[in-house]
Amino acid sequence: MLAAVGKAQRSRVSEVSDLTFGNYVYLMRPKENWAKLEWNVDHEFFIECLAEVRDIRNELMHFTPDPLSPHQLAAVEGLLEMLRTVDPRQ
Questions:
Q1: CB neighbours of 29 closer than 8 A, spacing ≥ 6?
Q2: Which of 19, 37, 66, 86 could be joined to 23 by an S-S link, Cβ 3.0–4.6 Å?
Q3: Residue 77's CB: how many other CB atoms inside 10 A?
Q4: Contacts of 35 (CB under 8 A, 6+ apart)
Q5: Domain boundaries, the chain
Q6: How far is CA 8 from the centre of its chain?
Q7: What DSSP string describes 12-52?
Q8: How far apart are CA 90 and CA 37, in angstroms?
Q9: What is the pLDDT of residues 29-71, one digit of tens each?
Q10: 38-43 contacts, C-beta under 8 A, 24 or more apart
């Protein structure tokens, strides 16, 4: 898990719930981490979707007061639907 965290953040991360959204992309990128989930989703496609939603989240939270565009909203909803499909408990 700490491989997904920059050195400056490591002292603040002791469990998964301490990770930032940006850390998730780095955590899921290594194939050995991905394989542990046993999700039936293309790894590269998932990483692309996750990275796109990370960028949308960062733009929304840090840079712009504008509402989400239809494309951005579709990306967020698409990732959410994918996550619900691979883990319906969520």
A1: 47
A2: 19
A3: 12
A4: none
A5: 2-86
A6: 20
A7: G-SSGGG--HHHHHHHHSSHHHHHHH--SS-HHHHHHHHHH
A8: 14
A9: 889 989 999 999 999 999 999 999 999 998 888 877 788 999 9
A10: 39/86, 39/87, 40/86, 41/82, 41/85, 41/86
